[in-house]
Amino acid sequence: MNLILNQEKVYLLDMSVTEMVEALDIKRYQASQVFRWLHQKKMPDFDQMTDVSKALRSHLKTRCLATCLQTIHMKQSQQTGTKKALFQLHDGESVESVLIRDRTRVTLCLSSQVGCPLKCEFCATGLAGFTRNLSTGEIVEQALSLLRDEDLEGRTPNIVYMGMGEPFRNYDAVSKSIRLLMEKDGLGIGARKITVSTAGDVPGIERFTEEDWQVRLSISLHAANDTLRSKLVPLNRRYPLAKLRDAILSYQARSDRQITFEWTLLHGVNDSLDDANALVLFARELKATVNLIPWNPVSGLPFSPSPREQCERFRDCLLIQGITTTLRREKGQDIEAACGQLRRTHGVA
Questions:
Q1: Is 339 a catalytic residue?
Q2: Distance CA 349, CA 95 (A)
Q3: Best CA proximity match to 20, nearest among 29, 31, 9
Q4: How far apart are CA 36 and CA 40, in angstroms?
Q5: Domain-by-domain residue ranges, the chain?
Q6: In this predicted model, what pLDDT tens digit does every residue of 141-180 receive, in sequence order?
Q7: 206 part of the active site
Q8: Among the CATH numbers 1.10.10.10, 3.40.50.1260, 1.10.10.60, 1.10.150.530, which is that of 4-65?
């Protein structure tokens, strides 16, 4: 989906260089110049594009928009440096994105939808319901906006499609945004530094399996028995664990790539040793690592975070049985970094 605004202006961040050539009737080298300014230099002001001819700049101002996102709130953690932005879109809707720092490593967590249709029990985004898909440019611009004031000293960030929304329910825009983020004339992010996280959308995994890239796949699992997972992740009722496992096996048979299981730890819900052992049984014959995520409390939801000691017991149970496991440190609790929290706080959910 490309946005056409005001019935006349097109949103340039929706477009590849080839699409700019066709839509604007310009030369390829001119389109490449504009693409570099927008993506590589993160400059949305046409007047600042100094190597672009005045005539083309005038044409761009008449026909195009370089930005559709307005930052309406920004929070930064004093503890970890994690930065969370709330962006307003052209139609008044809003989405969140997060920049996470870990020493010299920077990871951007991007949204793919306004709200989310999946209604996972522990997720703040699900409380808001679903409004619409984001366009390619609205996804890309989240990354550009978060990076605009950052000095990465020549490094490229990691990208995780793990913000608001289910990426595979907006597959075309997500896949196109990935290719734009990888463009050498843009941010030039390597495929292995990009991860798409799905709650288990099997048709999306099947499409992803056919892609000619090395983008990573992550599954938000959270439970390894169908009864509990169907409660926490209602999508499991349509695609239960057996179907999900078959899709993962097909993906790995084709790609020979490892996946990551995301597991949000909820006290007294999915953090027992029995839960850990069930996860071991599900993951054992798959090429998989596990990322354990302490839950960020969300007002209005009947859950609480697992104590650190319980998180560590869960992790150790997996490690002892040969499952590579990481226990994530809390990086945004002081700034409401869980998906959908900032949006709810500011009255737009």
A1: yes
A2: 10
A3: 31
A4: 5
A5: 4-65, 70-345
A6: 999 999 998 988 889 999 999 999 999 999 999 999 999 9
A7: no
A8: 1.10.150.530
Please tell me the distance from the alpha carbon of residue 138 to that of residue 143, in angstroms, as a whole number: 9
Beta-bridge partners for 97:
85
Return the DSSP state at 329.
Answer: P
CATH number at 70-345: 3.20.20.70
Amino acid letter at 3?
A: L
- Which of the following is catalytic: 116, 120, 317, 339? 339
Q: pTM for this structure?
A: 0.92
| Three-point CA angle 52, 47, 142, nearest 5° | 95
273 residue type, one letter: L
**Which is the catalytic residue, given 64, 68, 96, 336?**
96
Take residue 293 and report the two structure tokens written for it. 């995520």
Cα torsion for 120, 125, 131, 137, to the nearest 10°?
-120
Q: Is the dihedral of CA 294, 297, 302, 307 positive or negative?
A: positive
